[in-house]
Specification:
This protein has 15 helices and 16 strands. The protein is of the alpha/beta class and 418 residues long.
C-alpha cells in the first residue's frame, strides 16, 4: 500500500476505535501481547537480517538499540499488558461546572484520531506506540528508519493478528512501507489525515518535523542531561548515580551527558570519578568512559580537552563532558545555557541547595539524589511511553495515555438560548 492508502485506512478505523469499550481495547492489547511472544522466532529472524544489514553503518551502541532477543520481546509484550491494566483515559471527566443559567459544562477526554509516529532504529517503539495509541482510542501509523524496517514489519504483523482476534480493524496499527524521506514528508504534511505527529529520534529528525510539518507535532526531545555534584554530596552516592546514569544504557535519551562538579570538592572528587568510570571499568573489561574536560577539570585529572561543542552534544555513547562550577547558581545557569530540557539531577545532602536547584532548573524532570535514567513512562508508573516531551504545551515529560488524548466540551441544558 502507498503511504496515502495507509493513512486513509487508518482514518477509516477511527470510528471503531473511538467507540471501542475499555474491555474490548484491553482484550486486544492482551491478544497483541500474546501474539508478540508467539511470533518471537519470526521477529528474531527479521531482526537478525536488520542487524546484518546495519553492520558497518551504525556503531555498536546503536546496534544494541536495534538488537532484539527473546527477553526483550517478552518485555515488549509485558509493556502491552501493563498498558491494558491502566485506567482508560477516554471518556474521563476532566472537570465540570454549572453556569448560572443552568448549563452544565463538562470537559471530557477523547481520542486524538490518527497518531503518526516517525522513529528510528528502536523496534520496541513499534509495540509501545501501538499499545498506547490503541488504549487511547486512536489508530497509529508507524514510520520507522530503514535499519529497523524488517523487525518492525514482523512486529506489526504479529500485532495485527491480535487486533483481528479482538474484532478490531487491523488498520488500527499500520507500518509505512516506504523508508525514504518522501514518506516522512508525506506524514508531516498529511492535513486532514494525521491528527498528531510524534517524532521520536535524534535531533535532526525532530528538528525536521518541527520545521516542516503542517500537521500538529508533539515534540519529543533529545537528552543532554546533566548531573551536578554539589559540595555537600555523598561521594559514594554520586559515583553510583553517575555510573548508572552514564553507563547502564548510554544510547538512550535519559542517559547523562554532562557532569558538573562544585569547585570546593573537585580535587577530591574528580580522581575518584575518573577511576570509577574509566579505570575501573577498563580493568573489568567494560567500555571505559572518555571524559571531555573543561580547562579547570583538565588541571586535576587526565582526559580529553573539551571542544566548543562538547557541552551541547548528545553523545549517546561512552563519552561525558565534565565541568567545574562555583556552586548551585552557576550549575543552574550552565544547565539553562546547554540543556535540552529533558532531565537534570543534583547530588547533595543539603536540602536548601537541592530546593534551589529544583526551583531554578527548567526541565521536564528534575532529580534530587537519583539517576536521570528513571525518566521513563514505565518507571513513572505510566506504562510504556511514546517518548519524552521537552516542550511545555499540552504535554511534558513521559508521554503516557493521558497525553495522547485531546478533549471536548459537552454542554447539557434544558432549552437555554442566548
Amino acid at each position: 500500500m502507498t503511504t496515502h492508502e495507509i493513512l486513509l485506512a487508518a482514518k477509516a478505523a477511527k470510528p471503531a476505535l473511538a467507540a471501542a469499550t475499555t474491555d474490548r481495547k484491553n482484550a486486544a492489547l492482551l491478544h497483541m501481547a500474546d501474539a508478540l511472544v508467539a511470533h518471537t522466532d519470526a521477529i528474531l529472524t527479521e531482526n537478525a537480517a536488520d542487524l546484518e544489514a546495519a553492520k558497518g553503518s551504525i556503531n555498536e551502541v546503536m546496534l544494541d538499540r536495534l538488537r532484539l532477543d527473546a527477553g526483550r520481546i517478552a518485555g515488549m509484550a509485558e509493556g502491552m499488558r501493563q498498558v491494558a491494566a491502566l485506567p482508560d483515559p477516554v471518556g474521563k471527566s476532566l472537570g465540570t461546572h454549572t453556569r448560572p443559567n443552568g448549563l452544565v459544562i463538562e470537559k471530557v477526554a477523547v481520542p486524538m484520531g490518527v497518531i503518526a509516529i516517525i522513529y528510528e532504529s528502536r523496534p520496541n517503539v513499534t509495540s509501545d506506540a501501538a499499545a498506547l495509541a490503541l488504549k487511547a482510542g486512536s489508530s497509529c501509523v508507524l514510520r520507522c528508519g530503514k535499519e529497523a524496517h524488517r523487525s518492525a514489519r514482523a512486529i506489526v504483523d504479529a500485532l495485527r493478528t491480535g487486533l483481528i482476534r479482538a474484532g478490531l480493524p487491523e488498520s488500527a496499527v499500520s507500518l509505512v512501507e516506504d523508508t525514504t524521506h518522501a514518506s516522512a514528508e508525506e506524514l508531516m504534511t498529511a492535513r486532514g489525515l494525521v491528527d498528531l505527529l510524534i517524532p521520536r529520534g535524534g535531533a535532526n529528525l525532530i528538528r525536521r518535523c518541527v520545521d516542516n510539518a503542517t500537521v500538529p507535532v508533539l515534540e519529543t526531545g533529545t537528552g543532554i542531561c546533566h548531573i551536578y555534584v554539589d559540595k555537600d554530596a555523598d561521594f559514594g552516592m554520586a559515583l553510583d548515580i553517575l555510573e548508572n546514569a552514564k553507563c547502564s544504557r548510554p544510547s538512550v535519551c535519559n542517559a547523562a551527558e554532562v557532569c558538573l562538579v562544585h569547585r570546593d570538592i573537585a580535587h577530591a572528587f574528580l580522581p575518584l570519578f575518573r577511576k570509577r568510570l574509566a579505570e575501573d571499568r577498563a580493568a573489568a573489561g567494560k567500555q571505559p568512559v572518555e571524559l571531555r574536560l573543561d580547562p579547570e577539570a583538565a588541571k586535576i585529572v587526565p582526559g580529553v580537552a573539551a571542544g566548543s561543542a562538547d557541552f551541547d552534544t548528545e553523545f549517546l555513547g561512552y563519552t561525558m563532558a565534565v565541568g567545574i562550577v562555583s556552586g548551585v547558581e552557576e550549575a543552574v545557569a550552565h544547565i539553562a545555557a546547554h540543556s535540552t530540557g529533558h532531565s537534570e539531577a543534583i547530588v547533595t545532602a543539603n536540602e536548601e541547595t537541592a530546593e534551589r536547584f529544583v526551583t531554578g532548573v527548567d526541565s521536564a524532570a528534575v532529580y534530587v539524589n537519583a539517576s536521570t535514567r528513571f525518566t521513563d513512562g514505565g518507571e513513572f508508573g505510566l506504562g510504556c511511553e511514546m517518548g519524552i516531551s521537552t516542550q511545555k504545551l499540552h504535554a511534558r515529560g513521559p508521554l503516557g495515555l493521558g497525553e495522547l488524548c485531546t478533549f471536548k466540551y459537552v454542554i447539557r441544558g434544558n432549552g437555554q438560548v442566548r
